[in-house]
Structures are given as structure tokens and as C-alpha cells.
Write a structure and sequence with these properties.
Elements (H helix, E strand, L loop, with lengths): L4 H5 L22 H13 L9 H38 L4 E9 L5 E15 L6 E4 L5 E3 L3 E4 L45
Antiparallel strand pairs: 1-2, 1-5, 2-3, 3-4
Amino acid sequence: MAINLGSVSGTDTPYKTGAYTVESNDKNTLSMTGYFQLLAAQLQNQDMSNPMDNSELMAQMTQMAMVQSLTTMTDAMKNSTAVNTQTYAASLVGQEVTMAVTKENSYGQETPVDVKYAKVEWVDFTSGDPTIKLEGDDKIYSLGHLVGMGRVPNPFKDQTGESSGTEGPGGSDDSDKPTEPGGDSDGEGGPGTV
């Protein structure tokens, strides 16, 4: 009998990174109903010469109630976080954002190398985590690629100060030049100058 090693590890490649957690199911999760069934069996089969202590029974019931409350609270927090993430992602539509441009490194991991400035065209919620489509770009970005709102200075420039990729739809990046309140960037002309 041959063993398929791919099915043993649970992944198609041994170099794939990720965390694996056991999903809860009927066999590895104790529900309140299951707890009461175990408690009833314990009470039915207890030694009559040494019966179960009431304080021990109350302590077990309190612990089970606390576990159930924590589970409910954790589920509520997960739902709240998902709603907040979707609300935030939806608020990005029509806004100019700074998105990280990534390149696959020699280990197969996505590494940010530059940024792209563009407006968000739409946000998609059907894949679980929100994905973002920028105007004039066919690539779909995850919310994790978002560097910031507006034109954030490129944090991925190399040591020489040069960017290794695109500046965005407007051509050269003039976002770091200061502007005078009453005129253009060179300080001449415009209302308010003497």
C-alpha cells in the first residue's frame, strides 16, 4: 500500500509557509450539552460510599459556564472585527491611496519593492478578505498591501534614495515638495503674494 505524502502534510508543497490549526468539530469540542451528559454519567456511576462533593460540582459548572461565555465573546469579537474591516475597506472607494507593489523573492514570498498611487475603483468582499481594484490597474490587491491614505512617501526606497518601480498614474512623484498656502511650489504668483 502506497502512502501519498502530500496528503499527510496537508499541503501541496513542503516549502509553503502558513499556520495550521485544528478546526473545531463534534469530536474535539465539548459543548454544554456534552458536559451535562458527562456530568449525568458521573453522578449515576459515582461511588455511594464516597459521593461527589457539591463544591466540586459547582466549580465544574462555573468553569464550563466561563468557557462558554469566553467562546461567545470570542465569536462576537471576530464578527465585529470582520464588520469593521469591511466598513473600512468600503470607505476606500473613490479615495486616493498608496498601495505597495510587490515582487516575488527567491524564496517565493511577496516582498514590497515600491508603491503605486491611485484611486480605489471598487472593493470586493466575496473572497473572504476584502480585495481592492485600483483605477488604471488590472491587478487585484489585498487590504494588506495598503500603505496609507493619500500620497504616503515611499518607505521602500533603496539606500540611494531611488525608487525601484512605478511612481503612479501622474508620472513623477511631486508629493514631497512643499507648497505655499497662496501659490504654487516655487512661491511665486497666486493670490496672497506681494
